[in-house]
Design goal:
heterodimer; A: mainly beta; six-stranded mixed beta sheet; five-stranded antiparallel beta sheet; 11 strands; about 55% strand; B: four-stranded antiparallel beta sheet
């Protein structure tokens, strides 16, 4: 079993839809949770960064962390064709070298 | 603006040559830099962790004599793929880390070995 599980998709939605992306994990020591967006042939771009449980909102993006269920989510409101990319969840423990554990990535396509 | 600068973005070379990829932290002095490899439609695979002034720590299965890492300063790390062969063709990405902040990634280098 992988430490972090993420459905690779692809996920296809119409423009304007609400998108829900999710990851589950098994390591209860994870404290920091991130979502990265990666366009084709580009490096990952940090979208959201959360410490421990709770919600965080930034514009059209909302990140949720439920440590009791070992489950994290990223919601995208009013999705746009420019949101079409691969979304990677990543997480790490406190006090280690900073090594990230990534999900497989979910490919999202937003159709105009 | 960009936090990390990675060069070159794309390189094509003949089998047997060595290729150097540079990673620069633009906004801050990075405590740690990381090197990843990514195959098409797959997630990032950590190759090595690099701290300024010390030897890099390689992940299991990564040949340290093949992938030489030099972390010359708090803002510069280089990855040299020595005697590259077609199977080394891949997308290489670096990232920088400062304390407990999130990692920021470069735009990657597409390496094609003929």
């Amino acid at each position: 079993q992988k430490e972090v599980e993420q459905d690779p998709g692809p996920l296809s939605v119409p423009e304007g839809a609400i998108v829900s992306l999710n990851c589950t994990y098994s390591n209860s020591a994870f404290q920091y949770f991130m979502w990265y967006r990666q366009y084709s042939r580009k490096g990952p771009e940090l979208l959201m960064y959360t410490y421990s449980s709770g919600n965080k909102e930034d514009g059209r993006f909302t990140a949720q962390v439920d440590k009791s269920s070992k489950y994290i989510s990223l919601f995208i409101r009013d999705s746009q064709p420019s949101d079409s990319a691969t979304y990677l969840c990543a997480m790490k423990e406190t006090g280690n070298t900073g090594k990230l554990i990534f999900g497989q990535g979910t490919t999202l396509q937003v159709k105009p | 603006g960009a936090v990390v600068s990675q060069h070159p973005s794309w390189v094509i070379c003949k089998s047997g040559t060595s290729v150097k990829i540079e990673c620069r932290s633009l906004d801050f002095q990075a405590t740690t830099m990381f090197w990843y490899r990514q195959f098409p439609k797959q997630s990032l695979m950590l190759m090595a962790t690099s701290n300024e002034g010390s030897k890099a720590t390689y992940e299991q299965g990564v040949e340290k004599d093949k992938f030489l890492i030099n972390h010359a300063s708090l803002t510069l790390s280089t990855l040299t793929v020595t005697s590259a062969h077609p199977e080394d063709s891949s997308f290489y990405i670096c990232s920088v880390l400062r304390y407990d902040q999130p990692q920021h990634f470069g735009d990657g280098t597409r390496l094609s070995i003929l």
